[in-house]
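Most newcomers find our protein records easier to grasp once they have seen one. Read left to right, the backbone structure tokens trace the chain's path through space. Nothing more is needed to start thinking about how sequence determines fold. An example says more than a description, so a record of this kind follows:
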Amino acid sequence: MSSSSSQIGRPVGAKSEETRRRILASAMRCVAEVGYSRATIREIARLAGITSGSLYHYFPNKAEIVKAAFTEIADVSLPRLAAAADRTPGVLNQILAVLDEGGQLLRDNPHAVAFDRALRVESAEHLHLDQDSDMIYMGLRAVIRRIIEQSHREGTLTADADIDGTTDAIFAIFQGLSDHAATATPEQYRATSRAIALLIRGSLFDPAPGAVTFGR
């Protein structure tokens, strides 16, 4: 989604780009806290540390700010998640690297999940954001599938699991963790993320004598 048409007359330069990023971060925070319908240009501008008049040099209205914020999330998140997997050797470590990078993305954008949820709750169809929102999740799923396919090629994926089922299982864990981030404290999120890492490694539980194996 291009935002060039919403930035006619916008100041140029590094300072201008920094201001634009502050506007988008402020919009995410404002919508996350009060919802789309109650978020105002004045409050977004206040949180960004600029005047409402200055904000209009960057975006013509609230809808365009929100659309640009969604695009920003996708443009930043997906390459970082893919890069985390690409630079890490070993299938298991790749999944954990994506998990870690996802946590860092949430720390860098603490209002992103609540922002997405607020818009879904309000069903703001007129913003036409469904495709952008789904693109983020489908991009994450594609990264996970690529890792699972590599595991299958290398023969490290257990014979009892198939590519689609394993991809969906890992993706569901990641999606659930993302939803958890909307309401969890940072400490709760870190504890949950650590438990998931142990679960993925197969070391969350000590094996019990005589334990029954299910799913066979």
About this structure: Residues 137 and 184 are 20 Å apart (CA to CA). The first helix runs from residue 14 to 34.
